[in-house]
Amino acid sequence: MKEIILTPAMRMLTELLEQRTGQILSENRLWRIETSLGPVLRAHGLKTLDALADAIRADASGAMGTQAVDALLNNETSFFRDAHIFALIGDQLIPAAMRHAEALGREKQLRIWCAGCSTGQEAFSIGMLFQNNRARWPDWRIEILATDISHTAIARARSGVIPQMEAQRGLPVSDMLRWMEPEGDDWRISPAVRGMIDFRIDNLVAPQAPTGTYDLILCRNVLLYFTAERKRALFSALARYCASGGALLLGAGETTIGLTTDFTASPEHRGVYRRVDPA
Fold first, then answer.
1. Which one of 15, 55, 64, 204 is most buried, counting C-beta atoms within 10 A?
2. Ranges for the CheR-type methyltransferase domain (predicted)?
3. Domain-embedded: residue 3
4. pLDDT tens, position by position, 124-166
């Protein structure tokens, strides 16, 4: 790939992204920076990245910078992404968390945190999974916190409206018909699923939304965009909010090796990391 030479405006925008989110733009994302920011340029009648950088500096409210950062984030997601992971959650991780909670004499409620939830498909998938299995878990309740730093992504997630093309990605037709309602050319997630999820704007560099501890934390395909130093800080934060005996799920290309001693890889399930209780 041709070497990309950063202009002063590009450097300012990438530094703004890292400053606000902790994320760095990899080489394969740098070449798309102008394309990603195209909608922001057009919305404000700007012609170049230099003009956008100047507008961000002049905007005391910080709103212009927020729009630019939102545009640079990768919000790729889909329903039941990596289907085997959701089979694992339903068949192994949720039942194990329930047994652990019962052994501790806790009330029949599980808490799940989707960290870096994008437009909500991961959290909606967990809600559907739980609803589909209510006969197995009749007395249990589930509480899902879903956070993302993108204002645009969280606004979409809160609306519950899913474009037709996105609704067809990974979602079985039976679940679409059971847990979604047609709305014009789009689909809206049913209140039974939406009501299970608390969508919050939050920054994983310094999370404020989580409270207490969570039995299961999903932070998949997020670490890819962080430096090793940021990853260590993120694992420390995740450990603070992961319950004793709890589990952390990472993406296929992510690991805790050399970055934290707070989690250890599950010998049975790839991509699952168990919370190591402090000595």
1. 204
2. 1-278
3. no
4. 999 999 999 999 999 999 999 999 999 999 999 999 999 999 9
